[in-house]
């Protein structure tokens, strides 16, 4: 078994089978349940179109998946460093690329669990069923790069910052900023700043693609720019994580020093 | 013997006389209550959707006019929404439908007019008619303005019977799995 696969299995197993990982998934399910119960409990929300509700639920799923990957990414580097577990891993013969890929593989497994959890919620709120396929496809194609980019960027931050707490705080603030399209609808982002932000923000790319596919019923073929945007950010974040965890060029430069 | 019991009751009441209080409903009023001397005009907003459906908003404009030669005081106007589908006739609870439920006008001069707007949020499908009634302090029988009927089309919205099992069941299942995992971990530690 390749080192990357072995690390991914261990990481994914910890995320999905450990009490801590299960507690995270339970918390994510609790958030989705809260939103779903608000929809049936509030007359105002209950009058939203099915397509709008499915879009909102899909956006929430991406945010939760990104949050899960982000916490996992910070913990995978900064947390392990503080627990003294990172140095033994870096000292092995495993290439750094395998270590990064392995960690990202574990986050991908966690994101898969998030997708699996969100599917029944999407089915439950999308009573007509006409938007369900588009939402699941959108989540898979656009949510996966966003969640994994968040995880990789958090690993890079965890390696750069000396404290796990600082890395977590910085990551959460960054996530709050990039996930702002969830709170500010497209009509509130029509200024030059808003449009510029939308043009480069991966979260905007994912939510705008979901908006087009789920609410407007556009095809996937029309979402090329959005797909390119989220994939570019995924690649950038991966490169940043790889660079942050590169082997030391000089003695004492290692991130665990 | 049996017939003597009612007679005895009547005799007892007769002896009590004024000590028995007179019930309010037992005394019919001599004159019917006065009708409000008002004219109520009700018109839909031209911007209302031509084919409204659930979730849309509609506005209606009311003109209250006092055509009498005397001023009127204590004018009260209120909104009523009636569902008029056959077999489903009912007066709608305004709670979710409108924040504008009623208004008061302290006084209206002879020939005076007052305008008001009523905005509705269309909550349920069906055929409806909007009424605005106006009465005064001295004339409680309202003058009424009525709209044409309009149909509210349904749209697919969240169904609670699909949401509740998922929203409650999934966290319960995950919580059960977590509890099982914690129990197993505790068992391993004890061993």
Structure write-up:
The complex is a heterodimer of chains A (257) and B (191). Chain A is mainly alpha-helical and 257 residues long. Chain A has one domain. Helix content of chain A is 78%, strand content 0%. Chain A has helices at residues 3-17, 19-41, 43-46, 50-83, 86-91, 96-125, 132-160, 164-178, 192-200, 202-215, 224-244. In chain A, helix 7 runs antiparallel to helix 8 (164-178) and helix 7 runs antiparallel to helix 10 (202-215). The radius of gyration of chain A is 19 Å and the shape is globular. The mean pLDDT of chain A is 85. Chain B is elongated. Chain B has helices at residues 4-16, 160-190; strands at residues 39-44, 57-65, 72-83, 90-91, 102-108, 113-121, 126-135, 143-146, 150-152. Chain B has two helices and nine strands, in the order H-E-E-E-E-E-E-E-E-E-H. Residues 1-5 and 10-24 of chain B have low confidence and may be disordered. Chain B has a domain at 39-152: Immunoglobulin-like. In chain B, strands 3, 4, 5, 7, 8 and 9 form a six-stranded antiparallel beta sheet that branches. A three-stranded antiparallel beta sheet of chain B has the order 1-2-6, with no helix packed on it. Chain B is an alpha+beta fold and 191 residues long. At the A-B interface, helix 2, helix 3 and helix 6 of A face helix 2 of B.
